[in-house]
Amino acid sequence: FGDMVKGVIPVLVARLVGADTLVLGIVGFAAFIGHLYPVFFGFRGGKGVATAFGVFATLSWQVGLALVGTWLLMAKVFKVSSLAALTAAVLAPLYIWWLTGEEKWVAMGIIMSAILIWRHRSNIQNLLSGKESSIGKGAEEKVPTDLE
Fold first, then answer.
1. Which residues, 6+ apart, have CB-to-CB distance to 89 below 8 Å?
2. Mind listing the pLDDT tens digit for each residue in 58-98?
3. Three-state secondary structure call for residue 142
């Protein structure tokens, strides 16, 4: 929850002071990058999923709803959190374009999604090798490589 708020608060404050769509996108992107590379922790932060969601959902509740729906569906079907997050990340720019039409936000969404995918490269390797943990399973119970 705390990581999501890192994306919500800056965008919400910018919106409340009347920032235009470009500034809202820049503020959201800055919050996302700040979470990934925090100065106070030696530029070592999280993977950014919750913060990106906070940014996207604050820019557009419809985009937030679409992302939650995507994550929940993928998590229910495949039982793999990282796969659900990666799927939502890949679809985020499409949802932004479809639901807002804001080209500046689409560009930001593409960049953020690419960074999210990059930050999940170890998860992707684990998925491909069948070593990624399933939701609700211990670390010893891994996902089959065929994901069926």
1. 49, 52, 112, 113, 116, 117, 120
2. 999 999 999 999 999 999 999 999 999 999 999 999 999 99
3. strand
Provide the residue count of the chain. 148
- Residue 10 structure tokens: 């800056």
Please state, in angstroms and rounded to a whole number, the distance separating the CA atoms of residues 70 and 93.
Answer: 13
pLDDT in tens, 117-142: 999 999 999 999 988 888 887 555 55
**HEC letters along 101-114:** CCHHHHHHHHHHHH
Digit-coded pLDDT (tens) for 16-57 = 999 999 999 999 999 999 999 998 888 888 889 999 999 999
Q: Quick one: DSSP state of residue 133?
A: B
3-state secondary structure 29-51: HHHHHHHHCCHHHCCCCCCCHHH
The full set of domain ranges for the chain reads 2-129
- Max Cα–Cα distance, the chain, nearest Å: 50
Q: Which of 114, 102, 112 is closest to 31 using CA atoms?
A: 112
Q: Across the strands, what pairs with 133? A: 142
